[in-house]
Request: fold
Amino acid sequence: MATRHLPALTLGRIATAVQLALVTGLTMGALGVAAPPACAQAAQARQAFSVPAGSLGLALNSFAAAAGIELTVDAGLLQGKNSAGLSGSYSVAEGFYELLRGQGLQAVREGNGSYTLRREPAQNAAAEAAATMPAVTVWGKGNTVTEVYAGGQVAAGGRVGFLGDKDFMETPFNTISYTDQFIEDRQARDITDVISATDPTVFSSGMTGIIGENYSIRGFSSATSDVAFGGLFGVSPVYRTSPEMFERIEVLKGPSALLNGMPPGGSVGGSINLVPKRAGETPLARVTASYMSDAQWGGHVDLGQRFGENKQFGIRVNGVYRDGDGAIDHQKKKTRLASVGLDWRGTGARLSADLYSSEDRARGLNRGVNLAAGLPVPRPPKPETLLNPSWAFYDTRDKGALLRGEYDVNAQLMAYAAIGAGKADYQSTGAYLIQVFNTAGDYRTNLADLGFNLEKQSAEVGVKGRFRAAGIGHQWAANATYYHHTDQQFGRRNTLAQDWITNIYRPVWGPATRFDAAQISKTALRLASYGLVDTVSFAQDQVQLTAGLRRQEVLSDSFNVRTGARSSRYDAAATTPAVALLVKAARNVALYANYIEGLSQGATAPMTAANAGEVFAPYKSKQMEAGVKVDLGEFAHTLSLYEIKRPSSYVDPVSNVFSFGGEQRNRGVDWGFFGSPVRDVRLMGGVAYVDPVLSKTVGGANQGKQAAGVPRLQAKLGVEWDAPAIPGVTLTANATAASKQYLNEDNSLSVPGRTVFDLGARYATRAAGRPLTVRASVSNVGNKAYWALPQWTSLGLGAPRTVMLSATTEF
Reply:
């Protein structure tokens, strides 16, 4: 039974708090209607089966028919095999496990929801005994915790750092894992398109054509450099990642230093892990053609196949090309991506290698604006307006490679190691320090040439084990992580002899200038950490207590670019604890709580700041969180309360000086949901409230004020409906609502909230005997003009109405 995913709909700008409350009420009302059927369908996750004993082939056929799934079987695998049958209430995964126990076979779920039977490496009796332990950590092939959840938009679990893959109901943290089908149906162009679509804890400015992705999680800006690739920092693209080469995008909310090691960019609101695609059991040759308004065309090729007697070798290749005019006037964007994923699985061992090369460029670079002191926030210009010259550009080229190996020492112990590297080259020329100086919208600016060369290396080695003693289960893990980069920054500011004066409503620019920048800084960063954790399960595994420590070391150097001599150094270390508790209050209800600390590299003033390149000392962050998770079988909910404390940063809108100090304390509550509560309907979204307070400030200035750039309230709802009257047709809608955001630290200036709606549809059919899916979507349907705050708290203009089309077929 193929799963389907809904492109998200975004509730955007709301003019008043009343409007936002109405959006929130609409979200809750929709769920209130859906909740009773969801309870009725909960049994579908586990349903009653009565499969008679006999040949294994007949038993599997009977089971697949009763479960309503498609199963592909090589008859040669079933010869001479019999089954004792199946009687009782089981999920699909549990049913396959019981039918295939001891047969040396396993059923693997494919991306389209079907199953394929294949040989399984022999396992000894101890391995079967270990399988009776709770499904907290799983290694090896056939991992059921990462299968798709009902509705197909998210997986049932994902990687939780060095704890391994865990079902979301077995995870004492707030996590969500988006599937490749959701990515494809959203026609996503970067990671932000995926994680900000329906998650109310993720805030995005809505800008397009900026130098990199820009989002915050739980009210804290999240650095793109902190995105992990296959569990390892330093491999993914530095500014923007095209998502076609990934099968899952996993988000863990809150600090994660114990689980992942120290993030290079210091993110504390959440962490993101990108899981590269692997070849499935069935050969794949998929081609997608795409279009985005006004005239951007592209294509995506996805190829995969396994080789060998037991299909132990796999290769997955993805290629992407997009180029042309975007929805903003005079802006062109270009994307290139080539990736290869290789894997080998043997008896008790697995190897994988991933390589990619990508290019992301724009002509008509987009930036935000600042306000002169005393000016009110102006009305936004038309959303198609480009506030930079059409010849302003950014050009980012990334390369990355990752090698990972795993070895099952025995059924209770697994060792692994990974090593990766990445390189990024960036250049840009464009307006900077744009400052509106009167109420008519006139602004002055100058041009800057900016660039960097960044080389990254990363590694990880660890062991995972499990055992049971005196009726108490233990799942433990230990690892060491290493990260190093060298960053050479280039820049030339004020390339014009005098500031350029124009107007935000009618910008006019002079002739193009060429890139000509000299080296302005060189820094090096080395991070090392050593972690140990144990999850203890008792009370018949209904209570799981996780406790761990991580020793973290950070060494940061700055160098004189003329002499090469080291000009400054930070060398710090700390041991940070974490503890988490999960209690299974009922079969489908889990309560959890956690406390986690982390050490992060000190912030670096951005290239656009007056003190660009200044490096600040490392800092600690702390999170306390408690929540409840409810899995109704086809529909799941998570409710979390949390507090996160970390040092605060700020760019003064007048002096443009970046400062880092004091403390920001975010307290919040968020409710999220996903799944298919009723037949032919899929929902995903939620409501999040955060109170981002400047709890400590230098000299007490603005203490107690709300942090800039963070909306207190967000509500999102994504809906997908399979129209019964027209087979193959799915209608989609998305809505995002965000309350006002303050522009400055004294809270004297703010931009109003916004509500933005998206609409779409797709049609799945067959053409010339091949599957064909056609998708169409319109974001910001009302072409709403709105200000939002991008990174560094300048005013950013949200993206205009944008049409996207795509068609996917397989050969």
User: Anything to note?
Assistant: The CA atoms of residues 96 and 380 lie 57 Å apart. DSSP finds seven helices and 45 strands in the chain.
